[in-house]
Design goal:
The chain is an all-beta fold and 109 residues long. It contains no helices and ten strands. A four-stranded antiparallel beta sheet has the order 2-3-4-8, with no helix packed on it. A three-stranded antiparallel beta sheet has the order 1-10-9, with no helix packed on it. Strand 3 and strand 4 form a beta hairpin.
């Protein structure tokens, strides 16, 4: 079962920016990188800092607290001090809106 949620109208979502969606259980950070959209858990797996406030570098987000890098594509923890991956979420464009599915989630193996 899916739970698609509206995030933002595509026309209002500039490249290089992030929007945060809150569900009952998690916060999801949604990024626009040159028209490619990624959704990940908003909390770093190391110290639970908000990744939405981190620095974007290509298809990676850098945690603002201790500098751990995460892949926006896979959720993989790429550098110390983070060793645990974060979840990613499917995104789609529907009727001009970017949507995220908070029910379907997976971890990097």
């Amino acid at each position: 079962m899916s739970n698609w949620m509206d995030v933002v109208a595509i026309d209002d979502f500039r490249s290089g920016t992030c929007r945060v969606v809150k569900t009952d259980e998690v916060e999801i950070a949604v990024f626009n990188i040159d028209g490619r959209y990624y959704a990940i858990d908003n909390l770093c797996s190391h110290e639970e800092a908000e990744l939405s406030t981190g620095k974007l570098e290509r298809d990676e987000i850098i945690c603002p607290l201790h500098g751990a890098h995460f892949s926006l594509v896979t959720g993989e923890a790429l550098t110390a001090p983070a060793y645990e991956n974060i979840r990613t979420y499917p995104v789609r464009i529907n009727n001009g809106w970017l949507e995220v599915d908070s029910e379907l989630q997976w971890d990097v193996a």
